[in-house]
Amino acid sequence: MPYRRFNVKEVAAYLHLAPEDVEGLVRSGEIPFERQGLRVVFLKKEIDAWASQRILGFSEKRLEGFHRRTSARAHDLSQNHTIIAELLKTDILEPALASRTKPAVIRDMAALAERTGLIVSSEELTQSLREREELCATALPGGLALLHPRHHDPYMFSDSFIVVARALQPVHFGSPDGKPTDLFFLVCCQDDRIHLHTLARLCMMCVQTPMLTALRVAVDRPAMAKAMTKAEEDVIARL
């Protein structure tokens, strides 16, 4: 439901923030909102895009705090509980992505997603990925990109999943450091409650473990899957 509207308490719960924190973001103009008379309302599709971009730009300290809060609220924290391992499609991992341009990467990542059998329309997913990149590139320093649709709606997928690819040749994807990208993660969450948490966990795995290096030297799909599983276990152990 991309056109759903939140009030302050609802958007605070959605973003895992305190209502007073949201009120502060409104006062400073840092969060997209509308006024309906004396009421402040937030359009879900705008909040999704804003929050995803905000997470990708977090410092490690702020990312760690957000991840800890979303971990406590999003799912069970028992020792063996994971989320990336559950969403990762090991048989769809691509260690030799042939794409050489940003449009080709988007198209080919959508094609990988289609191989899961979980998406309703490859064309619709491709278009949503393009729209998200037009808002702000999902590439990050370190040679990775966390692609995701602009909107996270249940009708787009029959289940949530993550696909990962390693490019044969690094591609300029809009990273803030100006360097090319060779590792691409596509996050497709049917449940918008876990989308932001999933992004945060992946970011934590990238900055607090040697996962990126392990993915670059992995010889095959099982080795790539093992690198990600180990990284998530290390992150969970820090909680």
What would you note in describing this structure?
- The chain has 239 residues and is α/β, with parallel strands linked by helices.
- The protein folds into 2 domains: 5-56, no CATH class; 84-238, Mannitol-specific EII, Chain A (3-Layer(aba) Sandwich), CATH 3.40.930.
- Helices cover 50% and strands 16% of the residues.
- It has 10 helices and 8 strands.
- Strands 4-7-8-6-5 form a 5-stranded mixed sheet, with helices on both faces. A 3-stranded antiparallel sheet has the order 1-3-2.
- A hairpin with a 2-residue loop joins strand 2 (34-36) and strand 3 (39-43).
- Helix 1 (8-15) crosses helix 2, helix 4 (60-74) crosses helix 8 and helix 8 (192-208) crosses helix 10 (221-238).
- It is globular.
- The two termini are 32 Å apart.
- The relative contact order is 0.15.
List keywords for this structure.
single chain; alpha/beta; Mannitol-specific EII, Chain A; 2 domains; 5-stranded mixed sheet; 3-stranded antiparallel sheet; globular
Describe this structure in a few short sentences.
The protein has 239 residues and is α/β, with parallel strands linked by helices.
**Proportion of residues in β-strands:** 15-25%
Structural class designation? alpha/beta
The number of domains is: 2
Gross geometry: globular
The CATH topology label of the largest domain is Mannitol-specific EII, Chain A
Count of helical stretches: 10
Q: Any guess at the CATH architecture of the largest domain? A: 3-Layer(aba) Sandwich
Number of strands: 8
Physical arrangement of strands within the biggest beta sheet: 4-7-8-6-5
CATH homologous superfamily title of the largest domain: Mannitol-specific EII, Chain A
CATH level 1 name of the largest domain: Alpha Beta
How many angstroms separate the termini? 32 Å
Percentage of residues assigned to helices: 40-55%
Give the rounded overall mean pLDDT. 87
Main beta sheet, described? 5 strands, mixed
Radius of gyration: 17 Å
Order of helices and strands: EHHEEHHHEHHEEEEHHH
Unreliable segments of 5+ consecutive residues: 74-79
